[in-house]
Amino acid sequence: MIKNKPVENEHMDLRWVKARADAVLESLGEGLVVVDKEGKILLLNRTAGEMTGWRPDEVTGEKFLEDVLPKENEAGERIQFKKSILQEVLKGKKITINALTPYWMVRRDGTRFPISITVSPVSIDGDVIGAVEVFRDISKEHELETAKNEFISLASHQLRTPLSTVSWYTEMLLAGDVGEITEEQKRYLGEIYVGNNRMINLVNALLNVSRIETSTIFIGNEPVDVAKVIDDVLSELEPLIEEKKHTIDKHYKDKKIPILRADKSIIHIIIQNLILNAVKYTGENGTITIDLESKQGLTLIVKDTGYGIQKNQQNQIFTKLFRADNIQGIVTDGTGLGLYMVKKILEKLGGKIWFESEENKGSTFYVNWPASGMREQRGTTHLISGQS
Ligand code: ADP
């Protein structure tokens, strides 16, 4: 409702409405562009102009949004109009979209800045007649995120060498290489060794996460025999499986499993995380069932009869550093980074992960890879495999 109308006639009412709308648009701290159904610019507010170097009167009613304000992805590739979120909104496919990964807006002078963007349709009687794009410069957030990732990457990288040194010397002392040690000394050295290994795992996990987040990892594309990778992981984990007296049911053994095109070491890391979790979070004498299904790509199924995950925490399982309450007192070594990392990898390279779980009954984790395999990536670093 319009309050404080200055005059009573209809003509003035409209001018009053327009003046208010203009004032709102001009004072907005975010860039705003309104386009018609073809993507032609109908309105560009002052902030959008200031951010991009265009004068609103030069572009409104004349030019197309994709020509004036082109967008790029992180790698500097142009987002084509056909594939843009604006186009999806104009076609009526989506209602309102907030881009999750940042886009880069290219200024008039060719320089660019990261933006977060929201696109909403303008409709009359259900027909989409245009769209409103609102964008915010997120250079500061982006810089901070990059600095944080670089710091984690550098710190964890620098920590790896001294931690390995501690590990080596403790092993030598424990092995009696420099003289006999008493039982008590052995116990203390054992504690140092285990604690140090936990730190190595944490540092490796942090390094992996920062590498995935900054998308610099190298992802190869080779034929992978997933059943063979499962066998390899199982033999690595054999001491732990024996210690916990688990039974391993290999349901995939009698099946003909198609070869997957993917990066073998990454498939190894994914499978290792899931099987290790099943073993870790199942008490003694449990059963771990592993299966592969080749419908709609390839699906790995890892089922355990362990502690399970309580319902009210299931939605947090894939978040960074999360460890569920029910296992905190039982299994103390864990980083809460494994499943977060697996989900991130699968999101980036193709694939899905999900689970079902009931507390005190057990959990089943599923990973599906599309038949086309994983997407390749020409990165410069590799993920670190292995839990010590
Ligand atoms: P970590 O095992 O190092 O704590 P993850 O990211 O692999 O980290 O797992 C996150 C949390 O999810 C675990 O701490 C645990 O609470 C829960 N979880 C994962 N797998 C299972 C499982 N098979 N059974 C029960 N809880 C699980």
The N- and C-terminal alpha carbons lie at a distance of 67 Å
Shape annotation:
elongated
- In sequence order, what are the helices and strands, one letter per element? HEEHHHEHEEEEHHEHHEEHEEHHEE
Rg, please?
Answer: 28 Å
Small molecules bound in the structure, each named once: adenosine-5'-diphosphate
The biggest beta sheet, please? Answer: 7 strands, antiparallel
Structural class: alpha+beta
- The number of distinct helices, counting runs of at least 4 residues, comes to 12
How many DSSP E strands?
14
Summed over residues and divided by their number, the pLDDT gives a mean of 88
**Strand percent estimate:** 15-25%
Low-confidence stretches: none
Quaternary organisation: single chain
Helix content: 40-55%
Short characterization:
With 388 residues, the protein is α+β, with helices and mostly antiparallel strands. It has helices spanning 10-27, 46-52, 56-59, 65-68, 85-90, 139-174, 183-213, 226-236, 238-243, 264-280, 325-328, 338-349; strands spanning 31-36, 41-44, 71-72, 97-98, 103-106, 112-124, 127-137, 222-224, 247-250, 260-262, 287-293, 298-304, 352-358, 362-369.
Secondary-structure map with pairings?
Elements: H1 10-27, E1 31-36, E2 41-44, H2 46-52, H3 56-59, H4 65-68, E3 71-72, H5 85-90, E4 97-98, E5 103-106, E6 112-124, E7 127-137, H6 139-174, H7 183-213, E8 222-224, H8 226-236, H9 238-243, E9 247-250, E10 260-262, H10 264-280, E11 287-293, E12 298-304, H11 325-328, H12 338-349, E13 352-358, E14 362-369
Helix pairs in contact: 6-7, 7-12, 8-10, 10-12
Bound molecules: adenosine-5'-diphosphate (ADP).
Residues 273, 277-278, 281, 304, 306-309, 317, 322-324, 327, 334-340, 363 line the site of adenosine-5'-diphosphate.
